[in-house]
Amino acid sequence: MTFEFDGKRYKQASVHQKTWGKGLIHELELAETFREFDWPWYMPTVREYEVMLDEIPFEEKKVWCTNADRYFESAEAMTKWIDQPSLVPFLDYLAEPDRMRFPDTVVQRMIGRTQQADGTCFETFRRMNVWARK
Protein backbone atom coordinates (compact mmCIF):
# COMPACT_ATOMS: atom_id res chain seq x y z
CA MET A 1 0.00 0.00 0.00
CA THR A 2 1.25 3.49 -0.76
CA PHE A 3 0.03 6.81 0.61
CA GLU A 4 1.09 10.25 -0.51
CA PHE A 5 0.35 13.34 1.57
CA ASP A 6 0.72 17.02 0.82
CA GLY A 7 2.56 18.83 3.51
CA LYS A 8 5.29 21.14 4.56
CA ARG A 9 8.24 20.71 6.80
CA TYR A 10 8.07 22.30 10.24
CA LYS A 11 10.28 25.21 9.17
CA GLN A 12 7.96 26.06 6.30
CA ALA A 13 4.88 25.59 8.45
CA SER A 14 6.33 28.02 10.99
CA VAL A 15 6.83 30.59 8.22
CA HIS A 16 3.15 30.35 7.33
CA GLN A 17 2.11 30.60 10.95
CA LYS A 18 4.04 33.87 11.15
CA THR A 19 2.79 35.08 7.76
CA TRP A 20 -0.86 34.27 8.22
CA GLY A 21 -1.42 31.89 11.06
CA LYS A 22 -0.97 32.24 14.77
CA GLY A 23 1.28 35.28 14.41
CA LEU A 24 -1.32 37.15 12.37
CA ILE A 25 -4.08 36.09 14.74
CA HIS A 26 -2.21 37.79 17.58
CA GLU A 27 -1.22 40.79 15.47
CA LEU A 28 -4.85 41.44 14.49
CA GLU A 29 -5.87 40.95 18.14
CA LEU A 30 -7.97 37.88 17.35
CA ALA A 31 -6.45 35.56 19.96
CA GLU A 32 -9.63 35.45 22.02
CA THR A 33 -11.72 34.81 18.89
CA PHE A 34 -9.58 31.75 18.11
CA ARG A 35 -9.19 30.54 21.71
CA GLU A 36 -11.08 27.29 20.98
CA PHE A 37 -9.66 26.94 17.46
CA ASP A 38 -8.09 23.58 16.69
CA TRP A 39 -5.15 24.32 14.36
CA PRO A 40 -5.96 22.21 11.27
CA TRP A 41 -2.48 21.58 9.90
CA TYR A 42 0.10 19.22 11.23
CA MET A 43 2.72 17.49 9.14
CA PRO A 44 4.63 14.76 10.93
CA THR A 45 8.30 14.36 10.10
CA VAL A 46 9.64 11.36 8.23
CA ARG A 47 10.85 9.98 11.56
CA GLU A 48 7.42 10.38 13.19
CA TYR A 49 5.83 8.40 10.34
CA GLU A 50 8.51 5.72 10.70
CA VAL A 51 7.73 5.41 14.41
CA MET A 52 3.98 5.10 13.66
CA LEU A 53 4.65 2.40 11.06
CA ASP A 54 6.86 0.50 13.52
CA GLU A 55 3.70 -0.13 15.56
CA ILE A 56 2.15 -2.10 12.66
CA PRO A 57 3.62 -5.46 11.62
CA PHE A 58 4.55 -4.58 8.03
CA GLU A 59 7.25 -6.70 6.39
CA GLU A 60 8.55 -3.74 4.44
CA LYS A 61 8.02 -0.02 4.90
CA LYS A 62 9.50 3.19 3.64
CA VAL A 63 8.80 6.86 4.33
CA TRP A 64 10.30 9.71 2.34
CA CYS A 65 9.71 13.34 1.58
CA THR A 66 9.81 14.76 -1.94
CA ASN A 67 10.00 18.31 -3.17
CA ALA A 68 6.75 19.43 -4.84
CA ASP A 69 7.41 23.17 -5.04
CA ARG A 70 5.21 24.98 -7.50
CA TYR A 71 4.68 28.23 -9.29
CA PHE A 72 1.18 29.65 -9.42
CA GLU A 73 0.75 31.38 -12.77
CA SER A 74 -0.55 34.59 -11.17
CA ALA A 75 -1.49 36.31 -7.94
CA GLU A 76 -5.11 35.44 -8.78
CA ALA A 77 -4.27 31.72 -8.93
CA MET A 78 -2.43 32.00 -5.60
CA THR A 79 -5.44 33.80 -4.11
CA LYS A 80 -7.79 31.00 -5.19
CA TRP A 81 -5.51 28.43 -3.56
CA ILE A 82 -5.38 30.44 -0.33
CA ASP A 83 -9.14 31.03 -0.28
CA GLN A 84 -10.02 27.38 -0.77
CA PRO A 85 -9.22 25.36 1.28
CA SER A 86 -6.59 27.21 3.32
CA LEU A 87 -8.83 29.84 4.90
CA VAL A 88 -12.03 27.80 5.24
CA PRO A 89 -11.26 26.49 8.78
CA PHE A 90 -10.92 30.06 10.06
CA LEU A 91 -14.10 31.59 8.66
CA ASP A 92 -16.59 30.12 11.15
CA TYR A 93 -14.71 31.87 13.96
CA LEU A 94 -14.79 35.32 12.40
CA ALA A 95 -17.49 37.99 12.57
CA GLU A 96 -17.60 41.16 10.49
CA PRO A 97 -15.37 43.10 9.89
CA ASP A 98 -12.74 40.47 10.70
CA ARG A 99 -14.37 38.00 8.32
CA MET A 100 -12.98 40.14 5.48
CA ARG A 101 -9.97 41.69 7.22
CA PHE A 102 -8.31 38.40 8.12
CA PRO A 103 -8.45 36.74 4.66
CA ASP A 104 -7.55 40.00 2.91
CA THR A 105 -4.46 40.34 5.10
CA VAL A 106 -3.49 36.70 4.53
CA VAL A 107 -3.76 37.04 0.74
CA GLN A 108 -1.87 40.35 0.71
CA ARG A 109 0.99 38.93 2.78
CA MET A 110 1.25 35.66 0.89
CA ILE A 111 1.37 37.38 -2.48
CA GLY A 112 3.89 39.87 -1.14
CA ARG A 113 6.07 37.02 0.10
CA THR A 114 5.77 34.75 -2.94
CA GLN A 115 5.30 36.92 -6.05
CA GLN A 116 8.16 36.81 -8.56
CA ALA A 117 9.23 39.51 -11.03
CA ASP A 118 7.31 37.76 -13.84
CA GLY A 119 4.02 37.85 -11.86
CA THR A 120 4.05 34.17 -10.88
CA CYS A 121 3.95 33.19 -7.21
CA PHE A 122 6.39 30.58 -5.92
CA GLU A 123 5.34 28.39 -2.99
CA THR A 124 7.30 25.61 -1.36
CA PHE A 125 5.48 22.30 -1.00
CA ARG A 126 6.63 18.99 0.36
CA ARG A 127 4.96 15.69 -0.32
CA MET A 128 5.20 12.96 2.30
CA ASN A 129 5.23 9.44 0.89
CA VAL A 130 4.46 6.30 2.88
CA TRP A 131 4.86 2.82 1.36
CA ALA A 132 4.27 -0.44 3.21
CA ARG A 133 3.85 -4.12 2.39
CA LYS A 134 2.19 -6.56 4.79
Summarize the structure.
This protein has 134 residues and is an alpha+beta fold.
Morphology call: flat
Low-confidence stretches: 8-15
Instruction: Work out the number of β strands.
Output: 5
- SSE run: EHHHEEHHHEE
Sheet with the most strands?
3 strands, antiparallel
Mean pLDDT: 83
Give me the Rg, rounded. 17 Å
How are the elements arranged and paired?
Blueprint: E1 2-7, H1 10-20, H2 22-27, H3 46-54, E2 60-67, E3 70-72, H4 75-86, H5 88-91, H6 98-114, E4 121-123, E5 126-133
Antiparallel strand pairs: 1-5, 2-5, 3-4
Helix pairs in contact: 4-6
Tell me what you see in this structure:
The protein is built from 6 helices and 5 strands, in the order βαααββαααββ. With 134 residues, it is of the alpha+beta class. The chain has a 3-stranded antiparallel beta sheet, covered by helices on one side. Helix 4 (75-86) crosses helix 6 (98-114).
